[in-house]
């Protein structure tokens, strides 16, 4: 590890859906959004924000989802363990996993990080434990044997303000995001699924999948204030934005 904080972005798969699933009321051909994971290297340890999908979503090019089918998939080499190894980071060296929430496409790689402690909002963990549902919350993804640190509200991960975990409820009962302050002072807000795309925020329109709309709109107002204050927001499944993200290199 280096003596300064570094943030890396990886795409660990694809999420295909109609535009109306991302932004209610919109129509058109199927969209293909990334399934991001972020490595935070800090002098005090390594953390991952979200871990992608489990092995059951791996496909080959021959068995890839048709372009007009709703679903998730990843291909060999996209899984988070392989993405980490591609920059010479051992998955066993990850100290913390920050799961934005416990849906299958955000914690499916947890099992490949054996020495990490998982950080999740306590209300999210409780929701997952009482809502076992295929394609949504599945224990084989989030109950993988590592210690779990269940929190309520904000957490300063390293005690220096550089990585702040913040509640962003709405999409799920206990969704959380992270704000990473880079060495030069730039602030990057890892939104995950509290806001799927930049267009959602531009229009102040929630995505279809929201369990608490009032909380979701409060979160959108929070994101708008953060953007106005200069934070760079990386959205949950924004294919257009992701085209401009340089993967596997420190973000600046």
TrEMBL record:
SUPFAM superfamilies: Metallo-hydrolase/oxidoreductase. Keywords: Hydrolase, Metal-binding, Zinc. It comes from the Bacteria. Pfam families: Lactamase_B (PF00753). The keyword NAD does not apply. Residues 34-237 form the Metallo-beta-lactamase domain. InterPro entries: MBL_superfamily_lactonases, Metallo-B-lactamas, RibonucZ/Hydroxyglut_hydro. One of its GO terms (molecular function) is metal ion binding. Its cofactor is Zn(2+). Belongs to the metallo-beta-lactamase superfamily. This is Metallo-beta-lactamase domain-containing protein. It comes from Sphingopyxis macrogoltabida (Sphingomonas macrogoltabidus).
């Amino acid at each position: 590890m280096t003596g300064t904080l570094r943030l890396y972005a990886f795409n660990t798969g694809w999420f295909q859906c109609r535009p109306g699933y991302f932004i209610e009321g919109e129509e058109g051909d199927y969209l293909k959004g990334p399934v991001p994971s972020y490595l935070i290297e800090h002098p005090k340890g390594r953390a991952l924000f979200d871990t992608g999908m489990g092995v059951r979503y791996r496909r080959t090019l021959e068995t890839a989802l048709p372009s007009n089918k709703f679903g998730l998939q990843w291909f060999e080499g996209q899984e988070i363990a392989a993405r980490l190894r591609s920059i010479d980071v051992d998955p066993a060296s990850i100290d913390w996993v920050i799961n934005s929430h416990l849906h299958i496409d955000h914690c499916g790689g947890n099992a490949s990080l054996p020495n990490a402690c998982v950080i999740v909002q306590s209300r999210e963990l409780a929701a997952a434990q009482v809502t076992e549902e295929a394609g949504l919350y599945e224990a084989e993804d989030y109950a993988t044997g590592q210690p779990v640190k269940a929190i309520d509200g904000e957490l300063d991960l390293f005690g220096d303000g550089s990585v702040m975990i913040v509640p962003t409820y709405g999409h799920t009962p206990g969704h959380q995001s992270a704000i990473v302050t880079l060495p030069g002072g730039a602030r990057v807000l890892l939104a995950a699924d509290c806001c799927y795309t930049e267009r959602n925020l531009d229009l102040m329109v929630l995505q279809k999948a929201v369990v608490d709309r009032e909380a979701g709109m409060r979160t959108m107002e929070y994101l708008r204030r953060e953007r106005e204050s200069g934070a760079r927001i990386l959205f949950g499944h924004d294919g257009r934005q992701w085209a401009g993200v340089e993967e596997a290199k420190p973000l600046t």
